[in-house]
Specification:
single chain, 382 residues, alpha/beta, Outer Surface Protein A, domain 3, TIM Barrel, 2 domains, three-stranded antiparallel β-sheet, 11 helices, 20% strand
Length: 382
């Protein structure tokens, strides 16, 4: 066998690499392949698991890499755990998306469960993104609403008084269009000394109006959906993290094109159900009807999307008018202009704990996750 080939794992195979050891778990039959003290194989797998590989390694059979890994590739393909497909030299790589690839692209929350706060500073925005409302319900994102409410900087200041340097927490800041908040600079000044993780989420269409008003040291997440109408957000990409929104197979190819063309070092992917993409998601993410899609079927499809996007458990959302939400859907559970935050914090954390235990507790009435083959590997549990 000679030529150029693309190698990829089968979508139901979960890889684990530790030091020079590799384990491949086939989640269909629960059989595992183990390669101990295989330095070249471990390096090969780390390259495959790099976000920029998009799940595919191009291999020239005349190289030392292939000679060192041929036994691994042959065995993986023989047992149906991967594909080694001949391609034309110079042809484009077709990216793949599956649960383990989505997991490694999902950023670690950086905080203990129950201490992730999303502040929505305002709702106004002059842009009209087609799936704006769906975005905010399925992953951390700005959202436009028919409201002129803006968050008072003093509410933000009082909120931070309940945390100290020993607390592990993260704050995500969203709009509307943040630049339209009349006191944005004050809020930025209040949040700048925060020792926890602080991230500003803006849509790429808002990039020019916002980017110079946000603090240099804070995390800046640029939300990118397709097609892209303005590429200015890709200048100096090392300064930002990009959240690429994928709802169909073609979006994944575009995502890879932008990552490679602009040498984007930090990015992750949010999958989005736009009401027409369930087939793509079931093929790519929800692989097993009785596995990842939850054996009892208690969660709706949109809830499963929220779990995959780490947008379901342990989130607290605070709106411009002070309303507090314990999830990305449902009604408010309190209002910070009327209720003491300490009591609200304890109440919301108890709600999160109860919902978490209900999903995880095998003895409970809602064991939708404990029977799942992906129980310990689902990116929703990060």
């Amino acid at each position: 066998m000679s030529g150029v080939f693309d190698f990829q794992l089968s979508p139901y195979v979960y890889p684990f690499v530790k030091n020079n050891n590799v384990l491949l778990l086939n989640t269909k039959d629960m059989n595992a392949m183990i390669f101990n003290e295989e330095e070249h194989v471990a390096a090969f797998m780390r390259e495959l698991l790099s976000p920029s590989s998009f799940g595919v390694i191009r291999v020239d059979t005349s190289t030392e890499q292939y000679k060192h890994c041929k036994h691994f590739i042959d065995k993986v393909c023989k047992l149906g755990n991967g594909l080694f497909t001949e391609v034309r030299a110079g042809s484009g790589i077709v990216p793949v998306l599956n649960p383990y690839l989505l997991k490694i692209r999902t950023p670690a929350p950086g905080a203990e469960r129950g201490t992730n706060i999303t502040l929505v500073l305002n709702h106004e925005c002059f842009h009209n993104c087609s799936h704006c409302t769906d975005y905010a319900r399925q992953f951390t994102s700005c959202t436009k609403r028919n409201s002129h409410a803006v968050m008072n900087p003093e509410l933000v200041r009082s909120l931070l008084n309940y945390y100290n340097s020993s607390d592990h927490f993260s704050i995500d800041i969203c709009g509307g269009d943040l630049a339209l908040h009349p006191r944005l600079d004050e809020i930025v000044d209040i949040l700048s000394p925060v020792e926890g993780i602080c991230r500003y989420h803006i849509h790429y269409r808002q990039f020019k109006n916002n980017i110079n008003r946000l603090p240099e040291q804070a995390g800046k997440i640029i939300i990118v959906d397709f097609p892209v109408a303005d590429s200015s957000c890709f200048e100096n990409p090392q300064k930002y993290t990009y959240n690429f929104v994928v709802s169909k197979k073609e979006d994944l190819t575009l995502c890879r094109d932008y990552v490679m063309t602009h040498s984007i070092p930090n990015f992750y992917i949010s999958i989005m159900d736009a009401g027409r993409s369930n087939g793509f998601m079931k093929e790519s993410i929800f692989l097993l009807q009785d596995g990842l899609e939850c054996s009892l079927g208690s969660f709706s499809f949109k809830d499963k999307v929220r779990i995959i996007n780490s947008h379901y458990f342990h989130k607290t959302f605070i709106m411009p008018n002070g309303d507090v939400y314990s999830s990305a859907k449902g009604g408010p559970v309190a209002n910070l202009y009327h209720d003491a935050y300490l009591h609200v914090k304890e109440f919301v954390q108890n709600m999160h704990t109860q919902s978490w235990e209900a999903a995880r507790n095998r003895e409970g009435n809602s064991n939708v996750c404990t029977d799942c083959l992906f129980y310990e590997m689902c990116p929703g549990w990060w």
